[in-house]
Description:
With about 180 residues, the protein is α/β, with parallel strands linked by helices.
Amino acid sequence: MDSTALVALLQDAVPHASLEAAPSVDLHTTLYVSPEDIHAVAATLRDSPDLAFTLLAELTAADYWPREPRFELVYMLVSLQRRTRLRLKVRLQDADPQVPTVSDLWPAANWLEREVWDLFGIAFQSHPDPRRLLMPEDWEGYPLRKDYPVQIRQTPRTSEALQVTEEEFRANVLKDRLSR
Length: 180
């Protein structure tokens, strides 16, 4: 199905949705969706028998700082029935980057959304478990943002005390080396 037919089908199913076909260098159809409409469009893509995009293969983001809109969320959907892929993109402003969660539609989105929030600071409204995934809980900032400082001069912090003394640690390392 080409992008024009897909946009027409989605406009019929979700009349208020703001959709825009985008050029692509590969063979994947690419559509831009507004942040407010992503959940309704995603539900239509998953539930419509004509589309059947039942698999969320990837969810990631890109930071185009200093350009506005700064962020783009990228959803890679797969229809196993139709053997087709679809790339959905959502543009987000720097001021308040947030979108509704799709983890209720595709459970795989749970961890992917947590990863995007943890590394880019893009919030997912109504997410069931909005905790950090990769960075420690006390980490400040979002490391994949283009304006994140590369040279960090912070003292390491952890939420738990060291369980062994420095001497015990050195003895364990030495014992490990001798056993190899």
